[in-house]
Specification:
7 helices, 7 strands
Length: 179
């Protein structure tokens, strides 16, 4: 008997740029994947009401508290620490993660421990080939210590980053063959 692949989608807050994720989750459940959203926002739950197969869990309250205050070094440091611990725990449950972005510490940590893909929907990266990232060991230290980069797009934790455009379908076909 085949075991269902468990996919995690950490969509902490509903944001209009991430509306494609709801349709993606619907298609994944139709293709027999086990999809779970983790959120802090009731709107995410409401937008998934049509899809009864999608599980929706509330994220930890302490992560929400720290995430909303992460501009302050003290809170940011503890956000990094707790995000790593939580990510290690989730790694034991989920096979794959779909990140809406990885510029926040929590998304970065989740992508570091769980095989992941980030779907960037910004036009500044439109129609690029599939990018496979390599992890810089020193970048890990900078991130853990709470260093804030102005723009880390393209330097995140996901194993794979893809973007919409004419290469979109081709990139997913490549991914399906590799994974």
């Amino acid at each position: 008997m085949d075991k269902k692949i468990k996919i995690l989608i950490p969509l902490f807050y509903d944001y209009y740029l991430y509306n494609y994720i709801y349709n993606l989750a619907l298609k994944l459940t139709k293709n027999n994947f086990d999809v779970t959203f983790i959120t802090f926002d009731e709107k995410v739950r409401q937008k998934n009401f049509k899809n009864k197969k999608v599980k929706i869990l509330n994220g930890p309250t302490i992560i929400r508290f720290l995430l909303n205050r992460s501009n302050f070094f003290f809170f940011r440091f503890f956000l990094w620490l707790l995000s790593y611990i939580w990510s290690i725990k989730l790694k034991k449950i989920y096979n794959f993660i779909i990140l809406p972005t990885d510029i926040k510490p929590i998304w970065y940590c989740l992508g570091s421990f769980i095989p992941s893909i980030t779907i960037v929907n910004a036009t500044n990266m439109m129609d690029l080939d599939l990018l496979k990232r390599s992890r810089d060991k020193f970048f890990f230290i900078d991130k853990f210590m709470g260093r804030k980069a102005i723009n880390i797009q393209g330097l995140g934790s996901s194993d794979i980053i893809t973007v919409p455009g004419y290469k979109f379908k081709e990139n997913y076909e490549i991914l399906l063959k590799e994974y």
